[in-house]
Amino acid sequence: MPIPYRVVERLFKGTKRDKNGCWIPKLPRLKNGYSVLYWHDRSGVDRTLTAAHGMARVIYREGEPLNEFEVPHHTCRNRACVNPLHLVVLLDWDHRGVHKVLSRMSQRKAAA
Length: 112
Description:
With 112 residues, the protein is of the alpha+beta class. The chain has helices at 5-12, 52-60, 92-111; strands spanning 16-17, 23-24, 36-40, 47-51, 70-74, 87-91. A two-stranded antiparallel ribbon has the order 1-2. It has a two-stranded antiparallel ribbon with strand order 3-4. The radius of gyration is 15 Å and the shape is globular.
């Protein structure tokens, strides 16, 4: 389903930039820190829930949707961020590998 313009406006309206260049939207967040956006289709029947960072990446790719194997990855490590320059598309398998490496690095840092 294409993303309606009114929804794109909501995504970026009131977005704040932090000191790291992250764009933090004024949207609800899940417990895991990801910003989310709900919208209804024009009929008001179908409700869609979308991760805000995924939507930002699709917009940056000029509307080309991510396929079932692609996931947006935050290079800034801020799950609420919707800055398209902080989002890269990785294959799901690669994305999991990146997070395993980052987790190991954090554990080593904490142990030192």
